[in-house]
Amino acid sequence: MTLLATLDPADADLTACLARVMAAVLKPGDVIALEGAVGAGKTHFARAFIRARQGDLAEDVPSPTFTLVQTYADPLGTEIWHADLYRLTHPDEMAELGLDQAMQDSIVLIEWPDHGGELPDPLTIGLEPIAEFPDLRRITLAGSEAHWGLMTRLPAIARLIHRAGWADARLVPLAGDASSRRYFRLLDGDRSAVLMDAAPGTTGPYVAMTQWLRGRGLHAPEILATDQVEGLLLLEDLGDDLIARVLEGEPALARRIYDRMTDLLVELHGHAPPEFVLRLNGAELARQAGLFAEYYPPAAGAPGKGAAVSAVIQELHKELAEDIAPVLGLRDFHAENLIWRDDAPLGILDFQDAVAVHPAYDLVSGLQDARRDVDPQVEAAQIDRYIAARGLDPDRFRAAYALLGAQRNLRIMGIFTRLAQLEGKRRYLAFMPRVWALIQRDLAHPALAPLAAALEGVPAPTPQVIERIAAA
């Protein structure tokens, strides 16, 4: 058993806050061993944990000192067992109480675990009162790193939430993205916030871009509290109305929504990009497109094909796209990262990787969406809308749009292949046929004939090819 993390000192509120954070991440089969003297706060911790799991259905959580075991259901369909083994006379009684089976398919919280014998890979939470400060305690988390390694983040999360005035909030996991970041919604009465849990020391770009965007009247989420050393940000909650969901529920809004997306880009591109962002020039675009040749053709059974793609993209960028000043590109500008707020400005998410790039780049990102079909007539109308708003040369812009569309989508094909093969994230493979079709549309532009030639012999992502990639 390894010491994973320490929370010291912790008052009753911070102790309960840690329990609520832990309630957001535990799953069936997890066993928590609560160690500490009488009055150390074991039941206080368990009560906060159980009530957080139950949310609006929270019930009274009495101490199981006399009943030995209490069971609870939560809205996620998980059963929670809360046991107090102080009066247990022999470890064999664990089976009589049903705890052996419960530890396989339920979340089990055990006070006085030493009375029950050896437990299957528990997370041990030690609560030790501080002698000179009886209202404070030192909390330790210990367990196997293989199973419980992610628990090292929880004390820092609890400290931030507690310090920011959200100690009573319940945490609910939100869907993640292709990165390693995690997100949680904090619910406290009629207010809510979002916690971003990123790798330690990696939130600087997000904070810098948030300040830049908000300083120009664009609605990135307000930062409510930070622990940048730990990679934690507490953010304004912009709600659940992702444009992707709004379009799915109300497809008739598509033209209005895409008009607003294009207008947002026109507004954004009216500002010179900040100096601190990456310059996504021809050389960098070519380098990133190299992900395609590195991963997709070999996985699809055509090693060596597409090897010239990067060099051709760099040459075409010089020819088609270097006559116009770069603008700020949010890079992941699409329906999954924009919040519909009716007549209020669109909410913007996931912009920490912003770049200085040709103005067609984010327009491509929004209109050639890997995750959903966009009506080609809507795409054409938005290209026209952007060209008119910025007074650009239509032929030059459309050629650059096709090039950046092909570059971006080829890179996506490489990323999806890499995610499937190296990280086991195979769900993205389902998007490959759509992305490939977008590439073919872009390659149809006469200016991209050299790139079409460089892709000869690369197989399309047929069901057989996708199956081959998934099996590798």
Automatic annotation (TrEMBL):
- A GO MF label: ATP binding
* Domain annotation Aminoglycoside phosphotransferase: ranges: 171-396
Q: Which GO terms describe its biological process?
A: tRNA threonylcarbamoyladenosine modification
Q: Which domain of life is it from?
A: Bacteria
SUPFAM superfamilies registered for this protein in UniProt: P-loop containing nucleoside triphosphate hydrolases (SSF52540), Protein kinase-like (PK-like) (SSF56112)
- Name its cellular compartments: Cytoplasm
Gene3D superfamilies according to UniProt: 3.90.1200.10, P-loop containing nucleotide triphosphate hydrolases, Phosphorylase Kinase, domain 1
A Pfam family it matches: TsaE
Look up keyword Plastid and say if it applies: no
Query: Which UniProt keyword terms apply here?
Result: ATP-binding, Cytoplasm, Magnesium, Metal-binding, Nucleotide-binding, tRNA processing
Gene Ontology terms: cellular component: cytoplasm
Task: Note the PANTHER family from the entry.
Answer: TRNA THREONYLCARBAMOYLADENOSINE BIOSYNTHESIS PROTEIN TSAE
Family listed: Belongs to the TsaE family.
Name of the protein in its database record:
tRNA threonylcarbamoyladenosine biosynthesis protein TsaE
Q: Which organism is it from?
A: Paracoccus laeviglucosivorans
